[in-house]
Amino acid sequence: MKTKNIHRLFLGLLAGCGVAAALSACSNIAEDERMVVVSTNVVVDSIPEEPVEADSLWDAPIAAVERRVLIEDHTGQKCPNCPDGTKIIHDLQRQYGQRIVPVAIHSQMQGIMEPEGLGTELGNYYYNYWKMQFKPAGLVNRLDGGDGVVLDKTIWAMAAGFALGDDLGPEPIDIRVKAVQREDNPAMADVDVKVIATMDDANVAGKLQVWITEDNIVAEQDSMGTRKPNYVHNHVLRAAVNSQMGEDVSVSGFGDERLFSYQFSISPAWKPQDLAIVAFVYNNDGVVQVVRRQLKMNE
Q1: φ, ψ for residue 155, nearest 5 deg
Q2: 299: which residues sit within 8 A by CB, 6+ positions away?
Q3: CB 115: neighbour CB atoms within 10 A?
Q4: Which of 25, 120, 233, 268 has minimal CB crowding within 10 Å?
Q5: Could you tell me if 254 and 62 are in contact, meaning their C-beta atoms sit under 8 angstroms apart?
């Protein structure tokens, strides 16, 4: 199914139910009762990546791949409702496992800028680029919800479930990543990304974006007005490997592939053992495919 048709279906679902009531199966719910209430007293653990040898994955035969969904969670350490968004993502990971690839994007709005906090200029760039006006706000595979791609947290689950639907057809591309800390210089890492067409009629053109994320960051967080000094932040966006908006990529026909190689500096403020690479291909219709791969440490 073409991506534009997927967006029309998603827009149709939202138009039928209404954005705020989308999770309530289109039932008639009072305006002041539509907020999904979740607990913010739980420290959310990261979902560990399934153990796999990077080399075997990198060289595996071309085959059909499962669809994965990128959730760009715009959040902030001074945002009292943002742990609600984190809890929703955690529940989605429990339900769908590694098919959910979240990235927490911190910025100045309701945030604390680095080096004291987790907000970055990169986060500011994306917050402004998407013309955001509230947090938590999410992009779910960059599907258009009718008023744009910025979605309220109350419909993240519906959007993720839709994006993972079996009726959307096979995935046209696979993305494979190798990320290895350098032996000669542990402050540097090498990243290789391969984009491969998996179908005879695959014809994908867009941008490849490569990000660095970090898990298990202990830092303060406002949660419903309560300051939590030892909150555990996961999948936090640290930097872009290949610029703010990525670079051009296109593949056409089964087995057609493009290879990209990068190096990046590991900041002294980061923990290499908790770093991962998130790589995804997107175009004007949304995210085509995404993958997350842990940085392989020197032994």
Answers
A1: -120, 10
A2: none
A3: 8
A4: 268
A5: yes
Q: And the tokens for 260?
A: 């990209």
Query: pTM score > 0.70 for this model?
Result: yes
Residue 258 φ/ψ region, left for φ over 0, alpha for ψ in the -120 to 50 degree band, beta for the rest: beta
List phi, psi (to 5°) of 203: -150, 85
pLDDT at 13: 56
Assigned token pair, 110: 């309701």
Distance CA(218)–CA(235), nearest Å, equals 12
CA–CA distance, 195 with 278 (Å, rounded to integer): 13
Evaluate whether 117 touches 106 at the Cβ level (below 8 Å): yes
- The 3-state secondary structure of the chain reads CCHHHHHHHHHHHHHHHCCCCHHHCCCCCCHHHCCCCCCCCCCCCCCCCCCCCHHHHHCCCCCCCCCCEEEEEEECCCCCCHHHHHHHHHHHHHHHHHHEEEEEEECCCCCCECCCCCECHHHHHHHHHCCCCCCCEEEECCCCCCCCCCEEHHHHHHHHHHHCCHHHCCCCEEEEEEEEECCCCCCEEEEEEEEEECCCCCEEEEEEEEEEEECCEEEEEEECCEEEEEEEECCEEEEECCCCCCEEEEEECCCCEEEEEEEEECCCCCCHHHEEEEEEEEECCEEEEEEEEECECCC
64, 171 contact by CB (below 8 A): yes
**28-74 tens-digit pLDDT:** 333 333 333 333 333 445 454 544 455 667 888 898 889 999 999 99
pLDDT the model gives residue 36: 32
- Strand ranges of the sheet holding 173-181, from the earlier edge strand across to the other edge: 173-181, 188-197, 257-265
Quote the pLDDT of residue 3.
Answer: 47
